[in-house]
Amino acid sequence: MSELKGVIPAIRNYKDFERALESNHKYIIFLETRISQIGNLVRYAKQKNKKVLVHTDLIQGLKADEFGMEYLLHELKVDGIISTRGNVISIAKKHGILAVQRLFVLDSHALDHNIKIMNNVKPDYIEVLPGLVPKMIKEINERTGLPIVAGGLIRTKEDIQNAYDGGAMAVTTSRTDLW
């Protein structure tokens, strides 16, 4: 399994994509784009020796199911995916690509429910949102035994350090000044 660590650029627009390509970051994440654009973006990123993670739930026009995953895996050859959906994580694991399950910490009930799912699905990483709650990062890591990526509302270097202090291995952010 590839290891995610450090700050990982999360790309929302073409300007940020260009900046991420010029950076020394190994991984980049495509958050919001359209199916008509994702192919060219992935191919160009790979030409620049970047490993590409795609947030399957946020690609407009892509259904996050077996056929959508088939396209990402066989046509685009992405290095990994991010999703809130356990079935998508299972497909990624079956095909040997990096699987990051996104978890929104809304309340105790949602947390307990999602931890049960993750303990069954066993993603490679869990991305905890918002990433501003080090105590929750630590608890989720302890309850699942899985490495944690912090994301969402990361706005300062202090936020990044707090996530690391809570046990996160990596932090995702679309704030280019933090890349």
From TrEMBL:
Keywords: Glycerol metabolism, RNA-binding, Transcription, Transcription regulation. InterPro entries: Aldolase_TIM, GlpP. The keyword RNA-binding applies. It comes from the Bacteria. Signal peptide: none annotated. GO terms for molecular function: RNA binding; transcription antitermination factor activity, RNA binding. SUPFAM superfamilies: GlpP-like. GO terms for biological process: glycerol metabolic process; positive regulation of DNA-templated transcription. Regulates expression of the glpD operon. In the presence of glycerol 3-phosphate (G3P) causes antitermination of transcription of glpD at the inverted repeat of the leader region to enhance its transcription. Binds and stabilizes glpD leader mRNA. This is Glycerol uptake operon antiterminator regulatory protein. It comes from Terrihalobacillus insolitus.
